[in-house]
Amino acid sequence: MSTTLSVHRARTVNWPLIGFVAAHLAVVLPAVLLIPIFAARLPANAVNVESYSIVTDIVFVGLFLLRIALRSDDRAGYTLETALPLTLGYAGTGFFVIAGTVLINLDARTYQMVFEAPAGLAFTVFGLFLSFGVGRYLGSAASIRRLRREAASSRRIAWLTEVDADRSWRLAFGTVVGIPYAILIVLFVVLPPGFPVAAALLAATWAALVLAGQRASVFITDGGIRVSGRLLLGAPSWSLALAQVASAQAITAQPRAMLLSWNPGLCILRSGPALEVTSTTGRLYVVSLPEAHEAVSVLDRLMEQRTKGDVVPELGL
Amino acid sequence: MLFEIDTRSPVPIYNQIAACVRRAIVAGTIKPGAKLPPSRDLARELDVNMHTVQRAYGQLRDEGLLELRQGRGAIVVPGDVVPSARLNGLVRDLLAEAAEQGITTGELTKLMESMR
Questions:
Q1: Do A315 and B4 touch (CB under 8 A)?
Q2: A79 shares its domain with A19
Q3: Which of A156, A298, A317 sits opposite B46 (nearest CB)?
């Protein structure tokens, strides 16, 4: 009996981890293989591309593996709907960075970073949006499928709204993202031979991200609740099936709560009313919502409907 | 904004979606100038075809309740649209009730004329 249980546990723990690493490698490896294939036509120090890829990939994969491993509840859902879309975006961008670097350095005399050539930069930016777009699309599709499976009734209910970021979010986000950006910018400037263009690009990207702000769509249906970031490559996004919702309440939240928080379920874009959902495992999910009380009412009634089976109460909102 | 449909109802789904918007306008849940959810999002969440939602929005535009602007989506027309929305809503509800009872629009019209 105990043997069966431990085998089952091992499978549920390992498949998301294996899938995550496999997906990452499947996207990045083809680009890395371009380096030995075109080695004869590349400048001598083009090996820099490979070292860049390996170091950043190990850090990225290691961090996400840790997060997946620590996620004792809904590990498969977290991997499929959050970690894999992000890794597809990241690994896809890595693919375009490496492939772009190889392409612009073919038959060149001196090594050039991908960001230093307009064609390479355009190729990378295109790849970044494409990769995160595909990842985001697949992640959304996975969560929609899961929530739709929850709702088997012919009666369908959907409550939709959108929320925009305010100044307090820009301050908090600018600080959170600004610290690693500042470290990278300093490294780019200080480390020989110095990459001022890359440093300037990073600074410009940080400013653009903060100025662009963020917008999130909130969907409450008879399947559950889904929050989807519209900008910033789709993050933060989260979803909970109705069966996973223990309680919901309207609270007052501040974006600074996201500072130094590891909780991916925080989507606090404004200072003020927010919807706080507690999952059946005790995990907290928060989304800024001016109509938080209305959302709580909808969720409560949907949960009541679910508890009673097929009886659908009139929402009357 | 809340949308509620029943796929087994004899009332076409696009009519049900349009009725939700009308009810929300009459109840004041959505104000003039407010933006409705993109048809793609709404269709996905209700698990219906996007053209069904677009047809509902088109119907509301024809009734003068919505403006459909390229790139900006569906917007509730500014100004007081409640009287026309209320009348439209009553007529739609009547038609839906008649359809559920198997009464055709022609028979309903005759019934109304006989009451004059």
A1: yes
A2: yes
A3: A156
